């Protein structure tokens, strides 16, 4: 899979796009006037690995939260603005590292006022299209939502480019996976700006995770996406955890992937427990490794051929494989200990 090369854009102390790693975002969900809870959630998300943090700024009074967050966490803060361009301008002055605007609800001349200040301060703008708030004129003109979303974003891209502003990030989110993919694919063909991807309003924890994995995963396998947000009606720390798991499953993270068989009647090993223990043990290792835990030697070695290490049960004993070849035969209760030694040696 070839990742689409997009323009590299600086946001606070990180970069999005180009060859930079795909960054994981989330958003605060506390009332803006409850400062303590905003700080607490921001710090929890940062600790969980959130790399860019967005906060809704519904009115001028809420702007103060930007400055407070800037002093509370090190990750870039994005001000999410709807309707009133003055809030965007005040948020920039308060220290926001990026502005997210919804072009469907701010007038063009006011968008240019925001772009003007962002240009002076070297701050990027995300043109954040949501299928639910696409300007009516585009919905009437196009017979499908994806085309309407792309046209809506392109109008503002052209507006900003003609003005001389090109620190742009684009998002085209829908709660419908097919619309989302179609919109990003079309946009990816006509512009090189970094893409913020996600499935909006994906749902409650379990279903939302599945929907986000399918949608975000589909886009990433097409080479589209420079930063992701998993949107869940759940604790937002979960969004970060799921974001990392998505990137890990696609080999886009420097970390250990533990694969394990589902087990069946041939299983001679406690696969479920061993896989969990290996996952816990390797959680903080920053090296790309694949470790397979297979229940028996019938399909195990073959299925684990691509793994750096594999363990299987075999007639009362345990086998350890390195790149598909047996390197050790040990009692099953020693498998974990021996595997840990090999990982340490590596
Ligand atoms: S590896 Fe063996 S135990 Fe596991 S699912 Fe395949 S055949 Fe069954």
Sum this structure up briefly.
Helices cover 41% and strands 21% of the residues. The chain has 346 residues and is an alpha/beta fold. The protein has two domains: 9-249, Dihydropteroate synthase-like (TIM Barrel), CATH 3.20.20.20; 256-345, Sulfite Reductase Hemoprotein, domain 1, CATH 3.30.413.10.
Overview features:
346 residues, alpha/beta, TIM Barrel, Sulfite Reductase Hemoprotein, domain 1, 5-stranded mixed beta sheet, 12 helices, 21% strand, binds iron/sulfur cluster
Describe this structure in words.
This protein is elongated. Helix 4 crosses helix 6 (145-163), helix 6 runs parallel beside helix 7 and helix 8 packs parallel to helix 9 (236-249). The relative contact order is 0.09. The chain is built from twelve helices and 15 strands. It folds into two domains: 9-249, Alpha-Beta Barrel (TIM Barrel), CATH 3.20.20; 256-345, Sulfite Reductase Hemoprotein, domain 1, CATH 3.30.413. With 346 residues, the protein is an alpha/beta fold. Strands 8-7-6-5-4-3-10-9 form an eight-stranded parallel beta sheet. Strands 11-12-13-14-15 form a five-stranded mixed beta sheet. The chain binds iron/sulfur cluster (SF4). Iron/sulfur cluster (SF4) is lined by residues 261-264, 266-267, 294-296, 298-300.
